[in-house]
Every structure is written in C-alpha cells, then in structure tokens.
C-alpha cells in the first residue's frame, strides 16, 4: 500500500478494534474491565483483538507473572497518537447521527 490513509484504515479495520482502543485511551485496563466496558464483545473476540492490536504495535500487554494472573493492557506511543483522531471521529459521529437521526 502506497497511501498512509489506506494503511491506517487497514490497521484499524476489524470489528471491535476501535472500541478496544477507545477503551484504553483513558486508562490502563485488565481483561475483565474491558470485557465489562465493551458491551456485546465475546471473550474470544476480545482476546483476538487484543492480540491483533499488540501485534500491530498499538497496545502493550504487561504480564506481572503473578498467581492469580495479573495482566494489564495499555496504549503504545503509536496507539496514543490515535486518541485525538478517535476523539474527533467521536464528535463527528455524534454530529452526523443527530443530523441524520440514525442510530446504531
């Protein structure tokens, strides 16, 4: 892909990826917190999206190697760069939803 926009869209493509990133934009989370904060996402899908985003360099998985297991997720610097973009998309989406009176 020669266009950065195409690459960015491809990187963020996939159901729930933006939801996971948005959830991590405000604070570090453990798996259970994210599962509760993202209604409708299955455990399998959350696990897959976390793996995808880690592989793509947008989040970091920190395993504290304790019993019981303690794992936290947070945004990388590249992931943090997305926050203002996601905030703008949220504002835009809210405005368009109000203008078109369509809900998802």
Short recap of the structure:
This protein has 104 residues and is mostly helical.
Describe this structure in words.
The chain is mainly alpha-helical and 104 residues long. It has one domain (4-100): Arc Repressor Mutant, subunit A, CATH 1.10.10.10. Helices cover 60% and strands 12% of the residues. The protein has helices at 4-12, 17-26, 31-37, 43-55, 77-81, 83-100, and strands at residues 29-30, 59-63, 71-75. It has a three-stranded antiparallel beta sheet. The radius of gyration is 15 Å and the shape is globular. The model has no long low-confidence stretch (mean pLDDT 93).
Residue stretches low in confidence (pLDDT < 50, at least 5 long) are none
Number of strands: 3
Identify the strand order in the major beta sheet. 1-3-2
Question: What is the CATH class?
Answer: Mainly Alpha
Integer average pLDDT: 93
The CATH superfamily title: Winged helix-like DNA-binding domain superfamily/Winged helix DNA-binding domain
Specify the structural class.
Answer: mainly alpha
Q: What proportion strand?
A: 5-15%
Shape: globular
Radius of gyration, whole Å: 15 Å
The level of helicity is 55-70%
CATH topology: Arc Repressor Mutant, subunit A
Give the total of domains.
1
Ends distance: 31 Å
- Number of helical stretches of at least 4 residues: 6
Query: Largest sheet at a glance?
Result: 3 strands, antiparallel
State the CATH architecture.
Orthogonal Bundle
Task: Please write the string of helix (H) and strand (E) elements.
Answer: HHEHHEEHH
């Amino acid at each position: 892909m020669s266009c950065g926009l195409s690459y960015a869209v491809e990187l963020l493509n996939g159901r729930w990826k933006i939801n996971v990133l948005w959830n991590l934009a405000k604070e570090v989370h453990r798996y259970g917190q994210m599962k509760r904060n993202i209604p409708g996402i299955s455990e399998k899908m959350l696990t897959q999206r976390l793996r995808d985003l880690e592989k793509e360099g947008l989040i970091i998985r920190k395993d504290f190697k304790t019993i019981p297991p303690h794992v936290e997720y947070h945004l990388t610097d590249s992931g943090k760069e997305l926050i203002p973009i996601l905030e703008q998309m949220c504002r835009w989406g809210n405005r368009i939803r109000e203008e078109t009176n369509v809900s998802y």
